[in-house]
Amino acid sequence: MHFPSPPSPDYDFRPPEDWSEFTEVVSLAYGGYDHSPEHRATAAELLEPKRSLLACTAGRPCATLAGYSLDMTLPGTGPRPVLGLGYIAVSPAHRRRGLMRELIRRTLADLHTTRAEPVAVLNSTEPDIYGRFGFGAASHAVSLAIPVEARELTEMPAGDGPPLTLEVASPAESEAAVAAVCRAGLAERPGTLRREGAWLRRSLADPPADRGGAGRLLCMLATDGTAVRGYALYRLTAGWTRSYPRFTVSVRELCATDPAAYAFLWRALLDVDLGGTVVAEARPVDDPVLALLADPRSAAPTVRDQLYARAVDVDRALAGRGYAAEAELVLEVSDPLCPWNEGRWRLITGPAGADCVRTHAAADLALTARELGAVLLGGGSFAQLALAGRVTELRPGAVRAATVAFRHDPAPYCPVVF
Ligand SMILES: CC(=O)SCCNC(=O)CCNC(=O)[C@H](O)C(C)(C)COP(=O)(O)OP(=O)(O)OC[C@H]1O[C@@H](n2cnc3c(N)ncnc32)[C@H](O)[C@@H]1OP(=O)(O)O
């Protein structure tokens, strides 16, 4: 493909006025695809101009970065402020000139200088982009395709609560119930976001132009007469096999407050009238459905990287989360993009919290910011990274101690793409 050479541009950087300054760059960077008017309206509502950046040349935007003030559950804590990065896009005529790097560098330097959020997170279009900027794959998701023949569940936990009944409602009508279930059902899972207002409406949105030939989005609610204990967002795509209905049931989200409601919703999805394969593109890697299905192999679980995380400030990021065990570790961190992080840090973890300060003591583990990002939400494993040669053990036993302290159950997971 040939792109015209730009007239030796001098780039300047500034916050956008509003979403309209993003649209052309984002459309070009994503291959000329234009989002639906509903999608654009929500993107405009969610944009925080003061936290976002543009690169311009001759007064015209040519690169974009949106910053979102998010509250994310971290290991052992309730929701904590993190900065979400999205819509990182560079106009094709200006790519590979360091604009993305400069947008990210400025954003991280600003967070450090203003002592704003200690952690930055993003969803990446491709897995190979953000490691060089100190972002590590911090959560993973599993996709499932459960065929008709493998609908059997081994257990149907009854639970202590009143019996459950099923309601099917429109997502818009279910906003309050979904918000309440999310708060309760995801409170301990790192990576999940507090979703209210426009963020929640975006998760429930269903513009006809974005349905790709499928039916409208539906919302199953598991209710017990007094409370909604779970919901599933799903849609059907018509399909027939030898005159039998085999509609694909695509699950966008499923969340419940207790095991009985959880199994109840999966049972209902697997039993949808006309249903064929039940597809869930992004479930937590430790999703209980993998233990409920009698034949999980038939669902062909496939794991992929999901959320990327980065410690903006090593000390604030590591002291701001909980740990599974007591440990004392000196980490030698390499971080050329954020040089204030370079050097040795003593991390002391315990039940009452953690402390992380600079030290001159001998290092126990050596790693880069990318590896630190991968373990930040409790999902990545020091042991795995060490076996891959990405973490160096300088004191025997340090890898084991770090692995145990940093790991978190349940595994991190983020149902929201921002
Ligand atoms: C959080 C999000 O928003 S994810 C969305 C990312 N955006 C997209 O996928 C939209 C389409 N792509 C684009 O707009 C652009 O190509 C971008 C944003 C991915 C890259 O922008 P550029 O300004 O060209 O990147 P930049 O010149 O700063 O490159 C910095 C480094 O990243 C590398 N890089 C850039 N894009 C990619 C890629 N897609 N895959 C792997 N490496 C990449 C460059 O080779 C360079 O490497 P180096 O460190 O060895 O020098």
Written overview of the protein:
Belongs to the acetyltransferase Eis family. Homohexamer; trimer of dimers. It holds the Pfam family Acetyltransf_17. InterPro entries: Acetyltransf_17 (IPR041380), Acetyltransferase_Eis (IPR051554), Acyl_CoA_acyltransferase (IPR016181), Eis_dom (IPR025559), GNAT_dom (IPR000182), NAcTrfase_Eis (IPR022902), SCP2_sterol-bd_dom_sf (IPR036527). The protein has 418 residues and is an alpha+beta fold. The protein folds into three domains: 11-117, Gcn5-related N-acetyltransferase (GNAT) (Aminopeptidase, 3-Layer(aba) Sandwich); 141-305, Gcn5-related N-acetyltransferase (GNAT) (Aminopeptidase); 308-406, 2-Layer Sandwich (Nonspecific Lipid-transfer Protein, Chain A), CATH 3.30.1050. Helices cover 23% and strands 31% of the residues. The chain contains eleven helices and 21 strands. It has helices at 20-29, 37-46, 99-113, 175-185, 197-204, 259-270, 289-292, 314-319, 369-375, 382-387, 398-406, and strands spanning 11-14, 53-57, 60-73, 79-90, 119-123, 136-137, 140-146, 165-169, 218-223, 228-237, 240-241, 244-245, 247-256, 275-284, 302-305, 307-311, 327-334, 343-350, 353-358, 365-368, 392-393. A seven-stranded mixed β-sheet has the order 1-2-3-4-5-16-6. Strands 8-9-10-13-14-7-15 form a seven-stranded mixed β-sheet, sandwiched between helices. β13 (247-256), α6 (259-270) and β14 (275-284) form a beta-alpha-beta unit. The radius of gyration is 23 Å and the shape is globular. Residues 1-7 have low confidence and may be disordered. The site of acetyl coenzyme *A (ACO) has 23 residues, from β4, α3 and β5. Acetyl coenzyme *A (ACO) is lined by residues 29-30, 85-90, 95-101, 122-126, 128-129, 132.
